[in-house]
Amino acid sequence: MELAYRDISYCKNVGAKRADILRKELNVNTALDMVRQYPYKYIDRSRFYKIAELEDEDTYVQIIGEVTEWHTIGIGRAQRLSATFFDGTHQCELVWFKGVQFVKLQRGVKYLLFGKPSRFNHIYNFVHPELTPWDKVTPEMTQGLEPYYNTTEKMKRMGLNSKAIRTIIADLMPDVRKGVPDTIGMDILQKYRLMTLRDALVNVHFPKDTLSMQNARARFKFEELFFVQLQILRQMKRREQFPGFAMPLVGSRFHALYKSLPFDLTNAQKRVIHEIHDDLKSGHQMNRLLQGDVGSGKTLVALLCCLLAVDNGYQTCIMAPTEILANQHYETLKTFLAPLGDAVHVALLTGSTTAKNRVPIHNGLMNGTIHILIGTHALLEDAVQWQNLGFVVIDEQHRFGVAQRARLWTKNQTPPHILVMTATPIPRTLAMTVYGDLSVSVIDELPPGRKPVQTIHQAIQRRAQIYSFMRKQIEAGRQIYVVYPLIQENEKMDLLDLQNGYNELCEAFPDLRISMVHGQMKAADKDLQMQRFISGQTQILVATTVIEVGVNVPNATVMIIQNAERFGLSQLHQLRGRVGRGADQSYCLLLTDLELSKDTRKRMDIMVATNDGFRIAEADLQLRGPGDMQGTLQSGTPFELHIANLATDGQLVSLARQAAKEILDKDPLLEDEMNRIYKRQLDILRVQQSYNWGEIS
Ligand code: ADP
Ligand code: MG
Description:
By secondary structure, this protein is α/β, with parallel strands linked by helices. About 40% of the residues lie in helices and about 15% in strands. The structure holds adenosine-5'-diphosphate (ADP) and magnesium ion (MG).
């Protein structure tokens, strides 16, 4: 029987109970699902190490030698067995904490030691190694690459460890070798030099050598990314057929704002507005991603585009991820729109808008008198009904998901045009996957006259030097931000840090005025403190990350980030973007301890080395890994990747997108006989994914 139709419970070494666990834990229902469980790593069992050669602590090694001495420490459950292993020239230590009574050691016997070394006091240790007497070592044990499979605690309790999985899969291999229907057509396999499904399955589990293992994995990664791209692009093609509101007019409000601006738009801003306007007048619904570095002027672009829509008789909204940001946008827009008087009516709706104040807003939206509504998730509530919502800006700040975006559409019959703005640039591979269904506009130019911020990484211990630097800047008339980290889990401690920092600064600069803001303050107090800093009454603003987004004080030239090691790269970049907004040279001081982890050091080095948000985003992806980034980019993506890695498989993402695009360009609905296999596979995937979608919408 074909593997796809053979129930997992009928496979050798499985049975009803194990089948149940496999279904629940790994979503393995059939024999085909089973062989599609790819190993997460391989260990080269054909290689034997000498103790003197050990250097990497993370890889498993095997060594031949004997046990020269051993002793137990402690009694009962706390017993610990420690042995010395000798490979002929060097020694290492073997340690067991558990099951000590089962470990039987013999002097003068040749052993094969297998395990993961770690270094402690200049000697290598192996905790709970596998120790096999040499005469029990079978040829298979030391042959080629040994695959390792993911398991869970529940699986292990049923004896389903990596070895057991391997046995089950090994038993299915004869059937795999007979042939498995491929999910990718021969033409694509040939064009992109990919292994067939059959060969890839054989070589992913029992590779001949490293190269065939890598080729097998590349095939599966490509396959995974290819179907993601087929889904994304098919969705995009479908949407291109949707009618959209036609907004051909460039009207009086747009012109009035344009003329009132105290500066010229950058060429990049102009280009992007043209791109968006082309979409608006096309008669099709726009779905566009606006990327641009911190300070590149995205807000103004969004506002001008809102006015395009308003001039054509439509309502618009700007959705922000936090109340602070929504407030900030509201203030910014009101300032920009002041010269236009009553011509544009802007309203603000957030979670803290009172029921009483909501009434006129709801009415204004219904009767069309509100032109631009700014708000948070509150905009998605059912009570919010529009007369004719035509244009939506989502200031993503990495927090709105595909599903939430889709929810906006049900608000009225014809979907509004959608512009998604990102707070910081997104690496290309991630953009193609997470935002792959959107057209992309990039503002790749900062307003003129900006001096790049100088970034300095400094040990927190050098306080005197830091204070004297601050003093000089303030004497020159500038202002300073001092930012402390704040993470939810440890809020009390962090507030204490902030308070201490504030007190220290007050002592160090008794003649200066210092503001302090944090998330726990009453909104009115916060506003007051903020206002004092913005108007220049206070010289230093001590704050938590509430200022990450929003504030715009051109006279502030120094950003001091305390405990910089506790911030992510994109957050540091955002914070740095708060300075360098005026004509004077600005500085960003990253303060950390002297002792740093490897990752932290890399992050600091990158921040010092570049101001380019795209480069920082790439580095962030490499350091944090795509899972983590995707998590923050989106509350959930329907595309769960099992083998491909967006941080390291960038090239495959591009190739897979290209392959998918070629197919859909010729056959958008996948109706051709030769494209049937893709349609069928997409249907299977959709069923598997419906679970994920349900969770986030
Ligand atoms: P972003 O949202 O992309 O980080 P902002 O929209 O906050 O950037 O813009 C940063 C600052 O630059 C704002 O004070 C804005 O008014 C100003 N600005 C925007 N466009 C221009 C321009 N073309 N020339 C000069 N200043 C500009
Ligand atoms: Mg902004």
